[in-house]
Amino acid sequence: MSSYSLANLFRHGLGGHKGWKPAWRDPEPKAEYDAIIVGGGGHGLASAYYLAKNHGFTNIAVLEKGWIGGGNTGRNTTIVRSNYLLDANAKFYEHGMKLWEGLSQDLNFNVMFSQRGVLNLAHSKGQLETFRRRGNAMRLNGVDAELLNRDDVAAFCPELDISKTARFPVEGGLLQRRGGTARHDAVAWGYARAADRRGVDIIQNCEVTGIRRDQRGVAGLETSRGYIACRRVGLAVAGHSSQLAAMADVRLPIESHVLQAMVSEPVKPCLDTVITFGAAHLYVSQSDKGELVMGGDIDGYNSYAQRGNLAIIEHVAACLVALFPQFSRLRILRTWGGIMDMTMDGSPIIGTTPVPGLFLNGGWCYGGFKATPASGWVFAHTMATGQPHALNADLNLDRFHTGRVLDERGAGPYPWLH
Amino acid sequence: MFLIPCPHCGPRAESEFSYGGDAKGSRPAVPEESNDETWIEYLYLRDNPKGGHEELWQHVHGCRRWLRVSRDVVSHAVNGCRDVAEGGS
Ligand SMILES: Cc1cc2nc3c(=O)[nH]c(=O)nc-3n(C[C@H](O)[C@H](O)[C@H](O)COP(=O)(O)OP(=O)(O)OC[C@H]3O[C@@H](n4cnc5c(N)ncnc54)[C@H](O)[C@@H]3O)c2cc1C
Ligand SMILES: [Zn+2]
Question: What domains does chain B contain, in order, with CATH numbers?
Answer without folding.
Answer: 1-23+52-89 (3.30.2270.10)
